Structure formats: C-alpha cells, structure tokens
Amino acid sequence: MRRATIVITSLLLLAVAGVAVLWFWLKDANRPGFHYDIKAVAGSEAHDTITPVSWIMVDGSNGMVLAERESERRMYPASMTKMMTCILAIESRRWDDTVHVDRAAATTESSHVRQGDRYLLRDLLVEMMLNSDNGAALAIASHVADGDTTAFYRSMNDKAKEIGMNNTHFANPHGLPDTLNYSTARDMMVLARYCMRDTMFARIVATNEADVPLVDGRTQPSHNSNYLLERYEGCHGIKTGFTNLAGGCLASVATRGGHTVYLVVMNCRPVWRRIPDSASLLDYGFNLMATPYFNRRFVP
Hints:
The chain has one domain (about 40-290): 3-Layer(aba) Sandwich (Beta-lactamase), CATH 3.40.710.10. The longest helix is centred in the N-terminal third of the chain and has 28 residues, at about 1-30. It has 11 helices and 9 strands. The N and C termini lie far apart (about 55 Å). It has helices spanning about 1-30, 45-50, 80-90, 105, 120-130, 135-145, 150-165, 185-195, 200-205, 230, 275-290, and strands spanning about 55-60, 65-70, 100, 120, 210-215, 220-225, 235-245, 245-255, 260-270. It is globular, with a radius of gyration of 23 Å. The chain has a 5-stranded antiparallel sheet with strand order 2-1-9-8-7, sandwiched between helices. Helix 3 (about 80-90) packs parallel to helix 6 and helix 5 runs antiparallel to helix 6 (about 135-145). By secondary structure, it is an alpha+beta fold. The protein is about 40% helix and about 20% strand.
C-alpha cells in the first residue's frame, strides 16, 4: 500500500512539474516574434537595419504573427487608407455606375483626375489604387454615399469595427493628413487580409500598369506605385502610402513555394526605404516559414 502511495505521489509531482515547465514555455512563446533561435534564421539581421517605426508580418494561411515591432502603436496610414475605400466600393456592387469627377475631387492634393471626367466605378478603382489618386478616392466616396461623404466615413469606421480593427479611425477616403485618420500596423494587416479575400480587389492590386478608360473613350495611364510588384519575386500586392507625417508605408503580400507572407510597414524614412526594407523582411518571413517556430498571436 505504501509503495503504491509513493508511486502515485511521484507521478503527481512529475505531472505538476511538467505543467509548470509547459506554462513557462508557453508564456515565453507568447512574446511577439518568439522563435527557438530567431537570430539563427537567415535574414534576422534585417531587424537591425530596417527603418520602419512599426511593422508586422504574418503567415497568410492562418494569420499567425511571424515577427513584429510596435505593431499596436498608433500611426498615420497615409494612402493605405484607400484599401478601405476600395473594398467598400467593391462591396457596394455598383461597379458599372458612372462616376462624375467634381471640382472638389479634381482639386484634391495629388489628384490625377480632372473636373468633368467620367469613369465607370470599376475603372476608377484601378486609377485610385495604382496611381494612389486622392481625387479618385474622394470621387468614389462621394458617389458610393450618394454625395454624403460624411456617411461614407461612417461606413469606413463601421467596417473597421466589424472586421476587428480596434485602434483605427478614418476621417477621409484617401489618407491625407488628419489627426482623426489613424491606425496601427496590426489593424492595417487586418484590413489588408480582409480585402485580399475579394477577387476583384486582389486583381486590382496585383496589376502593375493599366490604361484606365474614361467613358468618353480617352484613357488615363496608370502605373502602380508599389514597385515591389516588379522587384520582388512572388509579390502580388497591395498598397503604398506616404505623407510627410506618415513617412513611407506599404502593405504587401508575396507567395513563394506554396507559402504566403503578408507584411505591413509604417513610417519608413526616407520614403524609398519602404521597398528594400519590405523585401528584406519578406525574405526573413519566408525563411521563418521554413523553420519550426511557435507563436500564439493571430490576426483575423
């Protein structure tokens, strides 16, 4: 009897010790960017040289966070805001509507559309996303909301809450500086992944260049401001952003060897660093995908 008691007691002690070890391991593993030996992974040196103040990278298949830096820090998203404008317009399903460019849209900073121009909504979306056209964004917002841009901004914020963007507020459709237009790298990641589930959105942001047709038969040449499409193998999106306040921003996605990695970088300085910094981080992400890791943080 005594022997059985000793055996049971020993097993219980081993079980308690095992649970304690597992708890401490999981607690450690929950740190952002945890890896068995993260410095041994090729590309980890990118952490020491990249310029973005805030960034996050996730496994496209399940939203698992691969690595991040200050991803919950409130930042200006600049033209990455247009991802929300685009997806709301797509979800309105008014793609064949004719959008009239008014004076307000035509005179918006960094506008490429002109007063009196008319586009089908589906075509103006291409102009907005490739040329990062602020005037196109305002024209789209006004049209989809039947002239009430304030209502469109409410829709942007309602959608943000719906999809889990918990530290974001939109105050315009284009991302020009406004203290009430803010987000985080994590929230921009949530938005990017949500948008990329839509085939029309994904097709637009993967387009490198296009001659966007106007209703009158003219065309507007558009070249994607996301140069990663040309310079990084497997890249198929998503959206650039820049203002003096926001710095260089880029939401990107690439697929290689059956793996997809999403990345959002915010406030790269100088602005051109958003391309090489993103490429370095994506390389690192694909190396991580090929290495055993454990991280319990996910984004939708």
